[in-house]
Amino acid sequence: MALFRSLADPARLAIVSRLAEGEVRVVDLTRQLGLAQSTVSKHLACLRDCRLVDDRAEGRQSYYRLTRPELLELLRSAEFLLAETGEAVALCPVYGDPVATELSAS
Questions:
Q1: Which of 54, 41, 43, 48 shows the shortest CA–CA distance to 14?
Q2: Does 16 or 85 have the greater pLDDT score?
Q3: Closest CA to 95 of 77, 82, 80, 79
Q4: What percent helix, strand, coil does the chain show, rounded to 5?
Q5: Res. 102: pLDDT tops 60
Q6: Which pLDDT score is estimated for 81?
Q7: Does residue 67 contact residue 51 with C-beta atoms inside 8 Å?
Q8: Which backbone phi and psi does 24 adopt, to 5 degrees?
Q9: pLDDT averaged over the chain?
């Protein structure tokens, strides 16, 4: 479950999606995703701690890459599953929209 929690943040998922295209520097991620450098660095550190991302130094630059290509297959499978189930997951009273869950609990 920790794997899915680590990917639940939209910024981390966007970073993983970008890294699926190949190595990238933090400065490039900040431009492409419109996020602050500190935010990108924080998310990369999280993904690195999960061993999903690694980096290599080249001069003063660090290039980040995915360490587990299986992750892309997992994400493709999840997208397929969500497409097949429609809005069932989003409407689930236990795991769906947090606002809807709070309202139904009231």
A1: 43
A2: 16
A3: 82
A4: 60, 15, 25
A5: no
A6: 83
A7: yes
A8: -155, 150
A9: 84
| Residue keyed to tokens 């189930």 | 85
Encoding tokens for residue 52?
């999903």
pLDDT at 8 over 90: no
Sign of CA dihedral 18, 70, 38, 60: negative
CA 87 to each of CA 42, 67, 68, 103: distance values in angstroms, whole numbers, following the listed order: 31, 32, 29, 18
Phi, psi of 64 (to 5 degrees): -100, 145
Q: Other CB atoms closer than 10 Å to residue 85's CB: what's the count? A: 12
Q: What token pair was written down for 85? A: 């189930």
* H or E stretch at 55: strand 53-58
